[in-house]
Amino acid sequence: MTNYILEMKNMRKTFLGGKVVANDDITLNIVEGEKHAIVGENGAGKSTLMKILNGLYTPTSGTISLNGKVADIKGPGEAAKLGIGMVYQHFMLVPTLTVAENMILGVEPTKGMNLDINKAREDVRKVSEKYGLAIDPDAIISDLSVGIQQRVEILKILFKGANLLIFDEPTAVLIPQEVKELYKIMDNLIEEGKTIIFISHKLQEVLDISDNITVIRRGKDVANFETKDATKQKIANAMVGRPVLFTTEKPEVTIGEKIVEVKDLNVKNNKGLPAVKKVSFDIKAGEVFGIAGVEGSGQSELVEAMTGLRKVESGIFTLNGEDLAGKTPRHITLAGLAHVPEDRHTRAAVSEFSVRDTFAFGVHREKFTKNKILLDVEKLEKEAEFFMEAHDIRPRGTKTAFGKLSGGNQQKIIVARELEKKHDFIIASQPTRGVDIGAIEAIHKLILEEKKTGKAVMVVSAELSEILNLSDRIAVMCGGEITGILDREDATEEKIGILMAGGKL
Amino acid sequence: MSIFISLILATIRQAAPILITAIGGMFSELTGVVNIGLEGMMLMGAFSAAVVSYYTGNPYVGILGGMMAGGIMALLHAILSIKYKGNQVVSGVAINLFASGFTVFMLRVLFNQSGNTPTVPKTATFFGMSIIVFIIYAIAFASHWFIYKTVWGLRMRAVGEHPLAADTVGINVLNVRYFGVIMSGLLAGLGGAYLSIGALSQFTKEMSAGRGFIALAALVFGKWTPGGVLGASLLFGFADAGQTLIQQYVTGVPPQFIQMLPYILTLLALAGVVGKAVAPASSGKPYDKSDS
Amino acid sequence: MNRKLQGLLVPVLAVFIALLLGAGIIAYLGENPLTAYYYLFTGAFDGRRAIARTLLEATPMIFTGLSVLVAFKTGLFNIGAQGQVVMGGLAAAAVGAFVHNSGINNVFVVLIIAAAAGFAWAGIAGWLKAKLGVHEVISTIMLNYIALNFEQYGLNYPLKAGGPMGPSPQTPPVFESSRLAMLMPDTKVALNVGFIIAVIAVILIWFMFEKTITGYEIKAVGLNPSASENAGINVKWRILLAMGIAGSLSGLAGAERILGGVGQYTYRQGIMGSYGFDGIAVALLGKNSPIGALFAAILFAALRTGGRSMQFNTSIPSQIIIIIQAIIILLIAAENMFHTILDKKKKVSN
């Protein structure tokens, strides 16, 4: 008789008075002491399901049983008392407070009217010793590295007595070394008698460390495998509902001359510290140059500097021989650079604008005005309709607000818009972030097509598989420097992992 | 020497209403709710304190009346901004307009006057300063302890910086914000009460004269900390006090230019501080957990 | 009922509820609300004279309403409209009453100078915001107080009729050539061409936002400055330009008060009223659309002129209009509350 620590039966959660169905009759059973993976595309409903478990949301209907007893989880406090704890993808830590203050938030010890901060420090020391995770109680969260912050998150829930730990995309922001450490911590926790649920979209990771897999698609649980019987193909097909291609055909193209040159580029980050340190590389026509590295290694600042959104402290950046370092975004665009930004919501478009207006955004002065004063609405309308047909973007209707489209469709529009610009060089930053597997193929195809017309392409991505899939040459960034540049034939995950961690080959 | 002492005393006096209103604004903003309506709350406080003092003959009840008026206006702002997630700046501006109109209307209805109330009983004074001034500075110092040494203070700061994180550990974000906003109204009301029955003994139309906005500037300049706000308020109080002094001793300069000084100083302070002052991260954004 | 329609309903509901509450206050004060409102309505619209008065009062509010609206579209709150109105008026009076050069004291030139003064005054706040990130709410309010002090200085010293020793704080009347022509002169109300200019401004601003590149860019900056920067739009210049346009509109409001004859063509104490602040109410009630602002301005003006008639014919003080106006604003600010309540009603009826 399997001992289920958790049984969620017929879970249903709707929003906006029933208009949005996030979870539709999901049943999930977790065995005590196992590592259970929950997989699904963006918006499939996995986060919602976990938030119900953690008490942030109340289910519209359905029952939850812990160790056979029905539980009514009214809030996060309740969930914690029941032994449920969640380590969020975006940490639930207040950056300006200390480790101790974050740890005791909500369960603060007091001495009379005052906060008993000494007891708090003691509590931190006790729990960190018990689980062997060293941490300084007085450190301020914003000063800590991502891996250490995650440790604080884990200790926080252990401190409150969690037995069932939920991890939401835990390795999304970790470098390979930190990932290995996290896997070890997870194994230790299982040995201590804990049970782990983790959400992940990294199929290899799911196969490597889980015992059981549940796939969620469009609010429903569609598949459940024991990991020993599972393959990447099976899981992906269940996620999307149809067979999925993992690699895209690369067109055969002769690579041309150097057209992009970056030499000794130095850029500072928002805190005034060096983020890009003496970076040098070049890109040839028809070549896809990938930049790999965990987020925060300086890639964002590099791209911002090259697109005119951030000051260049020193160094050279030329395109077709023209010096572009320090020029305005407009000048750089007119010089032939197209850019798909990493954060589509803040950088690429205005969510409230219609799809039609979004197509013009950035090229409105060049393509959609007859006399530089009036907007050529007719031309805009025609172009927008044409694109929506050509790239199968739904729902049709150029007046829909951009923000209302799915992530994949949004990205398709942005990529299409950028490709339509007169350009010789395109930078695609995290091009398939938040984009469903179905649309990823389409976007990769669009990017690879650029090779045929002799464009230089720079792809920056934290998804190693994407880099390996698209690139002809791969550079790895770590701590603001390029630790190595490899040809695709020589590149393996191990080698890149070493470079990502700052090692040398 | 006596000019020096009277200047210091004047500075402390003039800074008081700005200080307490800014501390009030701090309570609100630390929890993440922007309060542009401090001016209106101060004005309502001034008016109510005078009216209550008039009808009860007791200025100390008047102080309570002033605080309550500010508190009620703040409750309105809280409901609009927190419960109904409205635009916090618009709500604040609306409260200011309402206060302006309401006080003038009631002046006419209650006293059939258009400029000011009749003289009303005022509070006792020590060293030439109303007792309210002492209360104000006591509250200001106490606020440092409250924000940094108590559970409530910790929770306020957490809610202001990362409301979702606070929510996930079981803190009621909305309640904490209601507390912050209502405190801001009570304290701004106290500041207003000082103006009408502490410094003078009557309410005059528009008597807050922009102090609620200068308090906001003091908040930014003071980087949302009690110590910083105290320093900034004293600076503005000094400008105000100095202005009257300069008018007495400096001839040849039209008085209006001297009266401009506090406002010009505020502009310069804002311009100089920018880039280094960071508001609480969730400032101005209504809390909606499904946004995560 | 879809969201958009719901949104349009809010201003109508706000006015209705405010009038209802006003009626309550009137009844409490011992008068019959229907009689009071009768005088309110006739005072505003009954006869050529009433209409002329209402439109005259609306004119500066149309300008300031547009002013606040333009800034709002850029994502900025122009609380400084009042100061911009004052500076525009001072410029108009300074040039119109003191500059003898007939090439300059021509009405069109004076209007342009007043608009420029408003442009510059708002531009200070715009520059502080664009270059240094200073919050425009506080900076424009400070500029308001500085402008008011300037006004006092001007009326008592350099611009005073008869010099600093003159009889009262006001300027001499502006020259004939600087004056705006009268509309409906038979009513003896100073309704002037300024009103026509205001309506033209409404059309121009509407056109700017719907059909031009500049309007497109201003909207983009207001909604998402990061994306606009990435799209090659110069965000700082747009902020500056938008604030400048906003300031010049308010400056025109001030100019109309002087050149339009409502104060015998002089700048006198109190002539600028609270039109700058009324502009905020107008923009909010008009839901930030130029046409809406036009109607909102006329509504508020009608309340005011009607209010005077109501005060004359009943014992209700005209200040009640301020209360009604304030309630309207609070209700607009509570827009989300309406949506929540209307949504709940929908749920129940389903």
User: In percent, how much strand structure appears in the residues of chain B?
Assistant: under 5%
Number of helices of chain B: 11
Terminal CA distance of chain B reads 61 Å
- Percent range for helical residues of chain B? over 70%
Q: Round the mean pLDDT of chain B to the nearest integer and report it.
A: 88
The number of helical runs of chain A is 18
* Low-pLDDT segments of chain A: none
Which percent bin holds the helix content of chain A? Answer: 25-40%
Structural class of chain A: alpha/beta
Largest pleated sheet of chain A = 6 strands, mixed
Kindly, what is the distance between the CA atoms of the first and last residues of chain A, rounded to a whole number of angstroms? 51 Å
Greatest interface (CB-CB under 8 A), with counts per chain: B-C, 42 and 44 residues
> What oligomeric state do the depicted chains represent?
heterotrimer
Strand content of chain A: 25-35%
Query: What is the count of β-strands of chain B?
Result: 2
Structural features, described:
The complex is a heterotrimer of chains A (505), B (292) and C (350). By secondary structure, chain A is of the alpha/beta class. Chain A has helices at residues 46-53, 76-81, 99-104, 117-130, 146-159, 176-191, 203-209, 232-240, 299-306, 329-334, 344-348, 355-360, 364-367, 377-390, 407-420, 437-452, 464-470, 493-500, and strands at residues 4-15, 20-31, 35-40, 61-66, 69-71, 84-87, 110-111, 114-115, 164-168, 195-199, 212-217, 220-226, 258-268, 274-284, 288-292, 314-319, 322-323, 337-340, 425-429, 456-461, 473-478, 481-487. Helix content of chain A is 33%, strand content 26%. In chain A, the strands form five sheets. Chain A has a six-stranded mixed beta sheet, sandwiched between helices. In chain A, strands 18-19-20-15-21-22 form a six-stranded mixed beta sheet, with helices on both faces. In chain A, strands 2-1-4-5 form a four-stranded antiparallel beta sheet, with helices on one face. Chain B contains eleven helices and two strands. With 292 residues, chain B is mainly α. In chain B, helix 1 packs antiparallel against helix 8 and helix 9 (211-221) crosses helix 10 (226-249). In chain B, strands 1-2 form a two-stranded antiparallel sheet. Chain C is built from 14 helices and no strands. Chain A binds chain B through residues 15, 54, 56-57, 75-77, 80, 86, 88, 90-97, 101-102, 105-108, 110, 113-115, and chain B through 149-151, 153-155, 157-158, 161-162, 164-171, 281, 289-290, 292.
